[in-house]
Amino acid sequence: MVVLLLLAAVCCAAPVGNAISAYVALKAGAQEDGGIAEGGTAADIPPRMLTAYKKAVQQVGKHVPTCRGMRWPVLAGIARVESNHAVGRNIATNGDIRPRIYGVLLNGSGAGGNMTSFRDTDGGRWDSTSQGERAVGPFQFLPSTWDDVGEDANGDGRADPHNADDAALGAAIYLCGKGRDLTQRGQLTAAILQYNQSGTYVSNVLGWIDQYTAAAKDPGLKNVTGTVRTVIEAALSQRGVPYSWGGGKATGASYGICCSPSGKSGTTIKGFDCSGLTQYAYARAGIRLPRLAADQASVGKRIPAALGTFALRPGDLIFFAYVPGRDSSIYHVGIYAGSGQMINAPRPGTVVRLDAVDAMSGYAGGARLL
After folding, report:
1. Beta-carbon contacts of residue 264 (< 8 Å; ≥ 6 apart)
2. Helix count and strand count (H, E) for the chain
3. How far is CA 247 from CA 2, 88, 204, 238, 351, in A?
4. Residues 300-331 as b or e (16 or more Cβ within 10 Å = b)
5. Which DSSP category does 149 fall into?
6. Global confidence as pTM
7. Which of 40, 44, 52, 35 is nearest to 94 (CA)?
8. Does an H or E element contain 368, and which?
9. Mean pLDDT: which of 129-143, 229-243, 342-356 is highest?
10. I need a labelling partner for 365 at 20 to 30 A (CA). Which of 46, 72, 247, 295 fits?
């Protein structure tokens, strides 16, 4: 049993890859398991929309005082799936979006996947039709739902689902419910299910939330210079890129390989596993690393685990092993970013991100190459 658990936890110890993503790609629509739309950093969000998401986080406590854990990546994840952040529309200074965003008429015709007919509730006020209902705005509210959660966020005296500020606040209120703790994955999942009762939809949204969360963190590189900065910035530039077992090389992200001990394939996911990420980042500084995490431990000056993590400096490789003191059992590698953080490609179903050094078990010291 212990052996099976260890094999399932392997990140990048051997090129027998595993990396079916937990997310589903968002392009024209959902794709087969294993695909994921690339990107996901804040750079793909129009600045005015990002402002609306951040403003909603500041305002939601006024309306749902018991809500915990509302963050702009949560709202961004929903809006990415619902409207691609209103990309292609004009977003005015006051947040009004034109042309307005309308979903398909929900008349049970099957168009756009709708199989249920919804009677008109707003006389066409928000959805411009009295023939039934359709979702509106960047967060795709039904008019009847908007009646329950709509609030004026931009101070113009009306709550408008076609306004970025109002819509973002309405979404925050809706997701918070009567007082969820969205730092808890289970409660966050329940909130998203309330938005759309589809497992595929939840996976899509959670995937984008994780990518935006990774992109939002900043380790602070004020005192880091030279080749160390080059390596760390190269690794940080890949935040939000999906994990792919066997994926990644000196030139960048690549498709992974098949198959992991648990039988999953990384062949359909373009991204990095842990040692692929370190190879890429160090190549930017002209340093070639072996492909496997255990082999990378033999490069540079070894930093014994007995010295503790306080001995680490930004840019050092950090290793994790199944058996303390036995480098052949190293199963994972990251890049130390300072302040107890590492740049990490943790495991299948995640993305490249900043993690605490103790996010992985079995600290096995580091290696200093710079």
Report:
1. 18, 19, 20, 245, 258, 348
2. 10, 10
3. 27, 33, 21, 13, 12
4. bebbebeeebeebebbbbbbbbbeeeebebbb
5. H
6. 0.59
7. 52
8. strand 363-368
9. 129-143
10. 247
CA pair distance 27, 47, nearest whole angstrom? 21
Distance CA 294, CA 76 (A): 38
- 211 in Cβ contact with 345 (< 8 Å): no
Cβ-based neighbour number of residue 102 at 10 Å: 16
Phi, psi of 354 (to 5 degrees): -85, 130
**pLDDT beyond 80 at 20:** no
User: What DSSP state is assigned to residue 241?
Assistant: P
Supply the mean pLDDT for the chain. 85
For residue 287 the two structure tokens come to 């340093």
What does the alpha-carbon distance between residue 283 and residue 352 come to, in Å, rounded to a whole number?
Answer: 17
pLDDT per residue as tens digits for the range 81-132 = 999 999 999 999 999 999 999 999 987 777 666 667 788 898 999 999 998 8
CA pair distance 15, 258, nearest whole angstrom: 8
Joined tokens for residue 123: 């006389």
Handedness of CA 304, 305, 309, 313 (dihedral sign): positive
Residue 185 phi, psi (nearest 5): -55, -40
The CA distances from residue 67 to 164, 168, 182, 208, in Å, are 21, 15, 8, 21
CA distances from residue 53 to 97, 219, 261, 328, 350 in whole angstroms, order as listed: 14, 22, 41, 47, 23
Residue 356 has pLDDT above 90, yes or no: no
Q: How far apart are CA 66 and CA 189, in angstroms?
A: 18
Rg (CA), the chain: 23
DSSP 8-state code for residue 189: H
